[in-house]
Design a protein that fits this description.
By secondary structure, the chain is mainly α. The chain folds into 2 domains: 408 residues, Growth Hormone, Chain: A; 53 residues. The chain is 74% helix and 1% strand. The chain is built from 17 helices and 2 strands. A two-stranded antiparallel sheet has the order 1-2. A hairpin with a 6-residue loop joins strand 1 and strand 2. Helix 3 runs parallel beside helix 5, helix 6 packs antiparallel against helix 15 and helix 14 runs antiparallel to helix 15. The longest helix is centred in the N-terminal third of the chain and has 32 residues.
Amino acid sequence: MHATGGQDDEDGPRRPWTVLAVALAAQILVVLDISVVNTALPTIGHALDIDGGNLQWLVTAYVMMSGGGLLLGGRISDLLSRRGVFLTGLTLFTAASILSGFAGSTGELIAARAVQGLSAALLTPSALSLITTTYAGAQRRAALALWGAVGSLGVAAGVLLGGAVTTWTSWQFIFWINGPIGVIALIVGTRTIAKEQVARPQLTDLDLPGASAVIGGLVALTYALGATATHGWWSAHTVFAMAVSAVLLVAFLTIERRADKPLFPPHVWKLKALVSGTAVMLGITGLLVGSVFLTSIFVQTVLGYSALKTGVAFLPFALAITAGTILARHLLAHAAPRVVAGVGLLITAGAAVLLSIAGPDAGYAVDLLPGLIIMGVGVGMVFVPVSVTSMAGIPASHAGVASGFLMTGHEVGAALGVAVLSAVASTAGSLATADGAADAFSRGFTCAAAIAAVVAAYALWRMPAQRVTGAIGHMHQ
């Protein structure tokens, strides 16, 4: 895929920013809800009597359903009115958020979070495709940079918001707060997003067999990894879930090769920038969300912080991510995207090593804060080049499926990040006790450092080598 030419380079008529504002507001809700429960986990666990090994499902139930359904959501966005799909997804997401707050048991809350995830699978690709088809040239690149910043900053900000809301009100309000925001976004979106005339698709155009296979495969994989903390890596339970995941994912690839109208067109695999960007998106989001999960548990269980104090403890991390995104925007004018992303990932790896040293007698200012700030800068440096380059040159007719593919990396990365780092961490100790959480924290971040180094090598090898001129400008060889 070439980064130059076409819609990506031609500015065209300047569009108002209202569509971007509505799309970003919706995506902020989606991203916040990945991490907003982290600071409330101990409170929710106590209220609903959830043991430490099952707390992660409040995070993974959401992201695994969102990640599994994004390809189908992207396909629906391409076939139907993007406006209609966006508003439908926003309505369902808002309703599911309200229901989450009324959950009275573990099963009810996990089910409501899963519905939230499926709603996000409609909302996210339609929002991103609205941006890529509404704006062109400099406006489009600036909008995509902001989209990337939201993807990283929203995760960190969710921890702060969750801590404040849980302390000042109750854990239910971390979900109920989405209600008024969602309603306002719906009203504004209904009035500002232009209506489209689209041909009525056939049911076969959706490739439901392929969608069912990929959703089932990703859900089974995430479940298998998450269950290792309870059942062990080589238990019959885990091995069976892994086998089911492998069968379903292989079935998905087989269905896609034979389908007349595949969910994911085979030629998309030839779009190097999109494929490499999605892989890096998966890796960095997994590291970010997994790290937030482990750190939230550590500061509350080991350091004894309240939910509010935990949220405030993540404020420097959020500010560092913002600094990293700003730094990346400027660096892209002088260095290739692969270099900016690779350096960011190496910084993230170094920060993970620093955090892994923290022990049961650790202090926040000395042992955690430096690592969190360094990691924040590194993470912020990765999201911008990935978001800007991945969608370059994608035609409007494939904007939905391309958006779905990219954001599948984001959501699946979030699910796998929590599942993998939690599973590895749990081999050293229980996340529910102070001594166990300290040992688990150390092992989890040692694993995170290794993953970051591998993803850095991949980014330097596969991401675009073209340099971006200007703040977020044209791409040149």
